[in-house]
Amino acid sequence: MTVRVVPRAALDAWVNDLVQRQKVYGVQLKEERFAFGPLVRAADLRLDYDVTLLPPKKYFLPQREVLSRFDRFKVEFEPVLADEPFVLLGVHPYDFEAIRQLDAIFSRNHPDAHYLTRRRNATIVVSDVETPSQDVFAACMGTATADCMDGWDVLLTRIADATYAVEARTEKGTALVGQIQGTKGAGEADLEQRRAVWDRNRDVLKKHQLRMNPEDLPDLLARSYDHPVWEEKAALCYSCGSCNLVCPTCYCFDVADELHWDLQTGERTRHWDGCMLEKFAEVAGGHNFRGGKAARYRHRYYRKGKWIHDLTGDIACVGCGRCISACTAKIANPVEVFNRLMEATS
Amino acid sequence: MRKPRIGIFDFACCEGCQLQIVNLEEEILDLLGVVTPVEWREAMSDQAEKGESFDIALVEGSITREEDAERLREIRARAKFLIALGACATIGGVNKLKNNFGMNDVKETVYGEAADMPHLETMPTKALHEVVQVDYMVHGCPIEAAELAHVVRTLLAGKTPTLPAYPVCVECKLKENACRFEFGEICLGPITRAGCGARCPSEGSWCFGCRGLVDDPNTQAAREVMAHYGKTIDDLRGKMLLFNSK
Questions:
Q1: Does B220 contact A at CB distance below 8 Å?
Q2: Which residues of chain B make contact with A260, given a CB cutoff of 8 A?
Q3: Whose CB has fewer CB within 10 Å in chain A, the N or C terminal residue?
Q4: Where is A267: in which H helix or E strand?
């Protein structure tokens, strides 16, 4: 589909209609911060948000979900799949890149039916960043804009005060955008304004400056295993997992069985886990493969810059900056750590 | 099969954790479907014979007198599993505030002229595990009824209950709360054991630390982290006194 232009009022009318017909999640104010939540009216939608507390991955891999119901004496399992279509409104490009990476992870080897069912049901409306967050560095990671990304359904860009450019790239997206009344085809001036937004974002979404190309990270980390920065930073680590939990590309989980009162039937659940938590790498018998803080601290950076790359070819940091803001001890800035490694080895 | 027998006991406390058991409401019938309560002063009129044994003893409250310690040892001897219930029992909680003072000062403050009466004799507060072996702990002030239910069901199924070893920050992030430190508050979340679902931060307050410290709290980090937020170690210690006095 070509690019169309829509006034904010028309966009709002469409959103107000859409929320009546299907499940819509959009960004809204929460405690002076922003969060994705069920949207009930257009007035609550905040496309001018800087960053959400949690990334939108929670709609594909929820904090806690039931995987199956079981009967432990009959040894029967019945899978539970969340099979309801929904629209995700206002995903920033860096968060969309993270979803694309998770799609690849959850499709490997044993495709994850729970994740992929939710993903199939989603129509994702990406929106270009209007307000840079305090710690964003997406521009350093090549994720400031979505123009070169594949897989999003709709892209929304605010090109003037109350005017948006809207483009659909998929069949689902085209159907969704087709419902908006009062759009007109974008002219060359509109497209120019959209490019200006992208140019600006590639320039300003850089609150921290990475002094290397992201593609250099795997090699850099390969020669930095014994660098003193791991011990140094980890000395202040609370092992609270905040950096993991707010990360759009972290996907580790734990699985637990919860019995009902009949002590026979129950639910198998999974919930988010994090490699910075003390017991994450503890196995049967009590051995912990990463019992020390520094080993856990280092692992997170390797996971972002090398291990995932070895697996899928992606650099698993999209520059959202959430870990930097969320870390109470202020030790979780990947840019600072990677630059420090660079100094030592260049 | 004989239903497991359960006894519920209290020491120095407000009995709010037992109230949480009653607050299971409809679920309490499920609980009674799988266990037989034999002793529960707060909710039952008939009590067990002296010396009768039971499978699970749920014990609330702190130990503050020698005769309490003796009674706890007797309960321990009768119970297959002993579960400490709530902050007073698991960490001493609010009752340990008095350990910051001399026992005579404490008695005089509370009882005035009557402080020397023999029945008011008191000793520094102890959590249950400082007196007898405790098998499992259900933390909190008050306990989470759902967590107790989980522990009881897991034990009855012959499994080992596991409780969170990670700090409250985990559950706070899962709830998508903004961090209390960003509002200029000292929150005990980073060093406090989770399991409450970050109840207080989710209501807009800092964590009071009622579930006790995580196994390996990073006390080394405290000074630098407090300085980052314009606070001191003493500010932090002040917050910890309420539930985590020694």
A1: yes
A2: 153
A3: C
A4: strand A265-272
